[in-house]
Each structure stands twice: as structure tokens, then as C-alpha cells.
């Protein structure tokens, strides 16, 4: 018997957001423009912020601060990876091909 529906609701929300992302944005073969990438980034950061606010209010302030800290650290590490990709692409001489 299921004691709480919260884990299932969170799993369902996560699955639905992945489906939304895959169905609506990956149906085309062209590259993503800078403007569209900025809007998508803002949208997903907004979703993460709402999730963080929910954790802060529904859970505890300590859990909310842990979530926010993990979010900031993850974003810092992802920017660090961009520089690694830049070094690798430069080393191998890869160029962006316009669509």
C-alpha cells in the first residue's frame, strides 16, 4: 500500500516535463537560435525556482537552502563544462555549420 502520493506526484511531474520538452522542442531538424535558447533557459530556470520555493515552503527552510545551494553549484559546474567543450572543439578544429 502506498503511504504517500507525494513521490508519485513528483515523479509524474518530472515525466510530464520531459515529455513536454521532447515533444514540443525536438520535433525539428534545425539548430536552436540564441533567442530561443535564452527563452528555454529562462523557462526551465523559472520551473526550478518555483520548485525551490515549494521545497522551502512545504519542507523546511533548511531544505530550501540546500536546494538553492545545489542549484547554484550545478549551474557553476555546467558553465565550467562549457569552457572544457570550447577547449576540446578548438583543439580538434570543429566549426559550427549554419543550418
Q: How would you describe the overall organization of this protein?
A:
The chain has a domain of 68 residues. The chain has three helices and no strands. Helix 2 packs antiparallel against helix 3. It starts with 5 loop residues before the first helix and ends in a 7-residue tail after the last helix. The model has no long low-confidence stretch (mean pLDDT 84).
The assigned structural class equals: mainly alpha
- Note the gap between the termini: 53 Å
Question: What fraction, in percent, of the residue positions are helical?
Answer: over 70%
Can you count the beta strands?
0
Number of helices: 3
Indicate the low-confidence ranges by residue numbers: none
Order of helices and strands: HHH
* Beta-strand proportion: under 5%
Anisotropy-based shape? extended
Rg on CA atoms, Å: 18 Å
Mean pLDDT: 84
Largest sheet: none
Summarize the structure.
This protein has 99 residues and is mainly alpha-helical. The protein contains 3 helices and no strands. It has a domain at 32-99.
Secondary structure elements and pairings:
Elements: H1 6-25, H2 34-58, H3 61-92
List keywords for this structure.
99 residues, mainly alpha, 78% helix
Amino acid at each position: 500500500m502506498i503511504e504517500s502520493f507525494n513521490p508519485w506526484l513528483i515523479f509524474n511531474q518530472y515525466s510530464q516535463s520531459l515529455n513536454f520538452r521532447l515533444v514540443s522542442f525536438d520535433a525539428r531538424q534545425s539548430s536552436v537560435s540564441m533567442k530561443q535558447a535564452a527563452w528555454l533557459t529562462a523557462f526551465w530556470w523559472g520551473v526550478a525556482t518555483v520548485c525551490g520555493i515549494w521545497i522551502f515552503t512545504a519542507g523546511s527552510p533548511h531544505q530550501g537552502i540546500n536546494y538553492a545551494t545545489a542549484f547554484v553549484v550545478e549551474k557553476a559546474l555546467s558553465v565550467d563544462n562549457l569552457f572544457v567543450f570550447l577547449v576540446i572543439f578548438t583543439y580538434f578544429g570543429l566549426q559550427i555549420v549554419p543550418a
